[in-house]
Amino acid sequence: MSRPGSVIVTGGASGIGLAVVEELLAEGWRVVAADLVPESIEKARAALAAHGDKVRVVQADISDEAQVVKLVAETESGFGPLWGVVNSAGIARDIPALETSADIFRKILDVNVIGTFLVAREAAKVMQARSAGSIVNIASVSGIQGNLGRAAYGSSKGAVVVLTKILAVEFAALGIRVNAIAPGPVDTPLVQAVHTDQARAAWLARVPLNRYAQPKEMAGTIAFLLDPEKSSYVTGQTIGVDGGFTAGGLIGL
């Protein structure tokens, strides 16, 4: 299948990001997977080696403005043209509000909100020349509902939801669409590190499908939002991919 250009996936060396990279490669996109963790980068390079020059796995800190500018510029000039971005990089802490320090809060905002903004902004600067492009942000159900232990993380993802709407409105005249997905509980390395057995039981009690998702189950919706034909009139939306969590009320007696 012919695709109009390349896609940057941040946080692309593990979890949801890696699943998205694999899905996009299968659909014929050229993909740059950007990540911060050296160990994850090396594992991803080995796992994706069969795709040859269709994929690059690079190191980048999305909270560093200069690194984001370089990432987008090098993708556009040496791997592009840049058609899409998936802002999957993020960090989380499951911690009560009374135990959340300002430093923890700032760090989460710096990566999840400012990092998402920087990548989207720089991508839009090059996309506007072609009047085409799609940006997909990863929000969370914790940015929609008030979940315990998510004062910092939930606030950051709520900001991503609103940022998505604002950028969709501002970038529409440039021909660029901006959307988000809001995952529920997904079995990623990040979630496995954060969710205790008690937390997992609490999530399962509220998810109508009664299970955690696999990372690849997020990839299909993201691929749809990137597709220039299938989702050409969709912008400013946050789509829940959450097993029914945000729709749920009383789900068992």
TrEMBL record:
Keyword NAD: yes
Domain (Ketoreductase) ranges: 5-184
Keywords attached to this entry: NAD, Oxidoreductase
InterPro entries tied to this protein: KR_dom, NAD(P)-bd_dom_sf, Sc_DH/Rdtase_CS, SDR_fam
Family matches, as CDD domains: SDR_c
NCBIfam families registered for this protein in UniProt: PRK07231.1
Family of this protein: Belongs to the short-chain dehydrogenases/reductases (SDR) family.
Name of protein: NAD(P)-dependent dehydrogenase (Short-subunit alcohol dehydrogenase family)
Species of the source: Xanthobacter flavus
